[in-house]
Every structure is written in structure tokens, then in C-alpha cells.
């Protein structure tokens, strides 16, 4: 039982994001993975509705959080990691390559004073590092490609892969963000598909193609056999060609410039200025527009 965590998903319709509470049924200890801090780009309003829903569930189930984890610095939503840390006291963690993402994006935002050593998190995980959620062993797998800092958390028989693989009918993650790489993504996918066939894979987004019902769980065997990108690509070169051609047609996520300045700071919003208000900084002409 200690190698079969209970997994509860929380879906955010605004960003198509799936957040997870991963718990050990024996000890009632849990982790929260990829929590969302709500942000409305039209009004600039922020909210903790998603994170509070997770907190209510944890309390109702009698769970005790031992860590709050992000799989990578998200480009499509703000992370609620620091908010949940403040509410629960649980440490926050992310892959150690986040420091490289900080250096890249601090340059884009012209923030030379911003820390680039990951000090905003309590834990920076190296590839292969292990820890426990109660009695459940968790292994960290570096999974770059979508971003420089992406990691997979393998918790017992469950792996949290976020944007590396979507559900089989949606294929794989884009790899054209600054620091992304289709070649690195292919290698990361191969590591995930080398896990046991019955490993449960939990993705971080579901866009419900064709209007189908929400799905976020698959298996290694299912992905290997039916993923719409993997099944048709017999070689690395095939995959890179498919992925790069697809990426060339995609617009940038609408929140990427908003989110990265928050998520490279562990989900902390900018400090209030002298008038008491917080402000986001948007670099102009950094990313290619759809008409470019």
C-alpha cells in the first residue's frame, strides 16, 4: 500500500490545469503538486480560490501536508506554492534547474537584483534525488524539453509528468519556449516511457479535444501505444520534425509574460510599491507575435 498513493485531482477550467493532492493512506501525510494561484488577466485581479479548495479538501480528509511541489516554472498560470507554504508551513520545492530559468528570465525582465540561486524555495531537487511522502518513496527525474527546469515526480506507482506528455489524444508538450528543446523533450519522454508499463501517469493539463470529458490519468503502456505523437514517430528525428512543425503554428500562452516573473519567484507576487499596489512588468517585443 505504501507504494500506491491516493491521488486526488483538482481542475482549473480557466487555465486547463490539473492540480494534485498525493497522499499516503497509511500515515495520512500528503503533498500538493502544481497548485494554481488565480489571476484574471483582464481585470488584474488575483484570488486564492483554487488553493483554498485544496486546503479545504486536506482539512476534510484529515491530511497533513509535508511538501508543496511544482514540476516547473509555469507559463500559463501563477503558482500557489508560496501561498500554501504560508498557510500550512509545508516546505516548497522544485527542480534545481530553476536557477537557469531565473537567469534567463531575470535578463528578459531587466531585474539584475533578483536572486538567481533558487533561494525562494526550501528544496531544490537534483535528478535522481529521493524523499518520502509518509511511507511513499518519491524519486525526482529531470525532464527538460518543455522548459529547462521541468521534472517528473515518481511517487510509488504514480508519476507526475505535467507538460511533458498530455493525454494520448493530445500528444506532447510544446518545446519552443525560451530554453525549450524538442530534442531534450524526446529524451525526457523516453525516460518516462522506460518506467514500468503499469505506472500511473498524471498530466498537468487537459484541453478536452472534441469536447470529451476531462481526463488526466494514463499509463506508460497506454502512452507508448496510443500517444498521437509518440506512436507515429519511430525515431528522434521524426519526433523533432513533428514537434517543431507543430510549435511553429502555436501562439504563445496568454499569461507567459505575466506568469514567469511570478513563478521564477516561487509564486510570490511582486512587492507592493509606495502606493500599496503591486505591479507586473511586461517586456515588449520579446516574443514573436502570431503575425511574425
UniProtKB/TrEMBL annotation:
Q: Where is the Metallo-beta-lactamase domain?
A: 16-205
InterPro entries from the UniProt entry: Metallo-B-lactamas (IPR001279), Mito_Persulfide_Diox (IPR051682), POD-like_MBL-fold (IPR044528), RibonucZ/Hydroxyglut_hydro (IPR036866)
The record's GO molecular-function terms, alphabetically, read: hydrolase activity; metal ion binding; sulfur dioxygenase activity
Which Pfam families does the record match to this protein?
Lactamase_B (PF00753)
Q: Which UniProt keywords apply?
A: Hydrolase, Metal-binding
Q: Which BP terms from GO are recorded? A: glutathione metabolic process; hydrogen sulfide metabolic process
Q: Does the keyword Calcium apply?
A: no
Q: Which PANTHER family match?
A: PERSULFIDE DIOXYGENASE ETHE1, PERSULFIDE DIOXYGENASE ETHE1, MITOCHONDRIAL
Protein name as annotated: MBL fold metallo-hydrolase
Record the organism. Falsigemmobacter faecalis
Amino acid at each position: 500500500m505504501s507504494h500506491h498513493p491516493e491521488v486526488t485531482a483538482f481542475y482549473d477550467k480557466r487555465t486547463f490545469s490539473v492540480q494534485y493532492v498525493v497522499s499516503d493512506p497509511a500515515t495520512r501525510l500528503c503533498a500538493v503538486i502544481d497548485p494554481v494561484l488565480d489571476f484574471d488577466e483582464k481585470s488584474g485581479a488575483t484570488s486564492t480560490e483554487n488553493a483554498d479548495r485544496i486546503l479545504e479538501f486536506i482539512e476534510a480528509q484529515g491530511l497533513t501536508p509535508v511538501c508543496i511541489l511544482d514540476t516547473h516554472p509555469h507559463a500559463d498560470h501563477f503558482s500557489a506554492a508560496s501561498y500554501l507554504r504560508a498557510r500550512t508551513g509545508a516546505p516548497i520545492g522544485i527542480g534545481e534547474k530553476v536557477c537557469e530559468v531565473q537567469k534567463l528570465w531575470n535578463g528578459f525582465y531587466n531585474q539584475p537584483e533578483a536572486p538567481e540561486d533558487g533561494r525562494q524555495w526550501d528544496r531544490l531537487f537534483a535528478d535522481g534525488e529521493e524523499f518520502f511522502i509518509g511511507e511513499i518513496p518519491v524519486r525526482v527525474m529531470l525532464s527538460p524539453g518543455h522548459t529547462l527546469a521541468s521534472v517528473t515526480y515518481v511517487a510509488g506507482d504514480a508519476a507526475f509528468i505535467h507538460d511533458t506528455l498530455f493525454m494520448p489524444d493530445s500528444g506532447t508538450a510544446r518545446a519552443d519556449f525560451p530554453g525549450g528543446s524538442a530534442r531534450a523533450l524526446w529524451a525526457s519522454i523516453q525516460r518516462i516511457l522506460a518506467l514500468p508499463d503499469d505506472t500511473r501517469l498524471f498530466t498537468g493539463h487537459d484541453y478536452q479535444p472534441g469536447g470529451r470529458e476531462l481526463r488526466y490519468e494514463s499509463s506508460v503502456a497506454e502512452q507508448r501505444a496510443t500517444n498521437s505523437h509518440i506512436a507515429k514517430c519511430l525515431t528522434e528525428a521524426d519526433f523533432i520534425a513533428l514537434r517543431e512543425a507543430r510549435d511553429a503554428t502555436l501562439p504563445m500562452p496568454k499569461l507567459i509574460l505575466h506568469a514567469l516573473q511570478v513563478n521564477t519567484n516561487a509564486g510570490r507576487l511582486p512587492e507592493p510599491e509606495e502606493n500599496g499596489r503591486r505591479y507586473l512588468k511586461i517586456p515588449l517585443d520579446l516574443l514573436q507575435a502570431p503575425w511574425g
